[in-house]
Design a protein that fits this description.
Number of strands: 7
CATH topology: Maf protein
Helix content: 25-40%
Oligomer: single chain
Strand content: 15-25%
Radius of gyration: 16 Å
Number of helices: 5
């Protein structure tokens, strides 16, 4: 089986490939010569994932899946949420986003947060969605060198370390994207 993963984010591809079974071959947008920015104009994480999968199917014809992920912080009424990648501006800079979030939370005692990933699968003319949530908290400072995005300041409930301090295997076992991909794989294996 061959599926296009509608992303150019090499970190996401690495995470997903690490748990995808051998019989499912992942293609990236680069592999299918899709060099354009796929629209992400919806107001929800689910909406963006669906929009990306439908766009790819319509314009390129491949069975595919897309994901969208957001960090939802309780004390900020769910922000940055759907705007997580561009929280500090259109430059989509992870360092800037992290700095802004730490500044916004500086005087807030409640640091509860969750990562949410929605995967939209477009296969055999049907659309299916899978959601993974990982609850945790935002640390007061960065810890670790691994991961990407907000990983150095997010500590999952199931761990005493940030996502940037744990292995990719452990992150996939407890994390939001790993949970959504596990549901995707179970569906594809039916």
């Amino acid at each position: 089986m061959q599926l296009v993963f509608a992303t150019n984010n090499l970190n996401k591809i690495k995470e997903v490939q690490a748990i995808m079974p051998q019989h499912i071959k992942l293609l990236s947008l680069k592999d299918i010569a899709c060099n354009e920015d796929i629209p992400e104009t919806q107001a929800t994480i689910e909406g963006n994932a669906i929009q990306k999968a439908e766009y790819l199917k319509k314009h390129y014809g491949y069975d595919c899946f897309a994901d969208d992920t957001g960090l939802e912080v309780h004390a900020l009424n769910g922000e940055p949420g759907v705007y997580s990648a561009r929280y500090a501006g259109p430059q989509r800079n992870a360092e800037d986003n992290t700095n802004k979030l730490l500044t916004e939370l500086k005087d807030k005692p409640n640091r509860n947060a969750q990562f949410k990933t929605v995967i939209a699968l477009h296969i055999n003319g049907e659309l299916h969605t899978f959601t993974g949530i990982c609850k945790g908290e935002i640390t007061k400072e960065r810890h670790g060198e691994g991961g990407f995005g907000y990983d150095p300041i997010f500590k999952a409930e199931a761990s005493d370390k940030t996502f940037a301090e744990i292995s990719l295997e452990e992150k996939n076992n407890i994390g939001h994207r790993g949970k959504a991909v596990t549901q995707l794989i179970a569906f594809l294996n039916k």
